[in-house]
Amino acid sequence: MKKAITLIELIFTIVIIAAVFTTIPKIIYVSNKSLEFSRKEDSIFNMMSKMMDISLKEYDENNTEYDDILLVNNPPQNLALDCNSSSGYRVGGFSGSRNCLNGIEESNVPSNSSGEYDYIEGYNGYTDTLNNGHTTYTLKIDVNYSNEWSGGNYDYDNQELSFNFASTSDDKKNIKRINVSVKDSSGNIISSLSYYSANIGHIKINSVQW
User: Fold this and answer.
1) SS (H, E, C) the chain
2) Are 159 and 135 in contact (CB under 8 A)?
3) What are phi and psi of 190, to 5 degrees?
4) pLDDT per residue over 130-176, tens digit each?
5) N or C, fewer C-beta in 10 Å, the chain?
6) In angstroms, how far is CA 1 from the centroid of its own chain?
7) Distance (Å, rounded) from C-alpha 35 to C-alpha 133?
């Protein structure tokens, strides 16, 4: 009867144990990388879903009741973009098109989320804590007015309209910039996405809103 292991068996055992202990850290590393990728993928999905939701909402709180192009500056300061309360139209507007005949002014952006999510500025300051397994990250939404192109003389055949989308403004403008960002537990931004919405009002054709 065999009562002890041979040297060959001992060597094979040591080799197998060494292989196991060499492989396990690699498996853990790959697993952690997979979880990291899954976390980022999940955060981007949540971010894009929230942005899609916001893009379907009204430009301004007052657009929930009025279809108008809203008054930003009265009298107009940006002659190309501000709707003229005297004529009831923006430059280039015509009878039957989008207008500001009701004289409704644009709303201020609240400093924090108002909890009313049927219009864009209601999302400003919105935060949500999301948990992905053992990882927690925070989704945050900021809404500001974007600086916009302005000038005194307009040649619509040769002049190009351009906007400074990189900047934000505390003053009312005709364009809102919505930024959705996702941060990890250390406050580092994992990903972010921006969307721009314009003060163009609505028009109804056969009772369908456009």
Assistant:
1) CCCCCCHHHHHHHHHHHHHHHHHHHHHHHHHHHHHHHHHHHHHHHHHHHHHHHHHCCECCHHHHCCCCCCECCCCCCCCCCCCECCCCECCCCCCCCCCCCCCCECCCCCCCCCCCCCEHHHHCCCEEEEEECCEEEEEEEEEEEECCCCCCCCCCCCCCCCCCCCCEECCCCCEEEEEEEEECCCCCEEEEEEEEEECCCCCEECCEEC
2) no
3) -80, -45
4) 776 666 788 899 999 988 775 555 555 665 666 666 667 778 899 99
5) N
6) 75
7) 9
Q: Are 67 and 203 in contact (CB under 8 A)?
A: yes
Give the integer Cα–Cα distance in Å for 57 and 116. 11
The pair of structure tokens assigned to 59 is: 């430009």
Mean pLDDT over 184-201 rounds to 85
Q: Which two tokens stand for residue 131?
A: 């948990």
Give pTM, 2 decimals: 0.74
Task: Give CA–CA dist 199/69, Å, rounded.
Answer: 6
- Token pair for 92: 């280039």
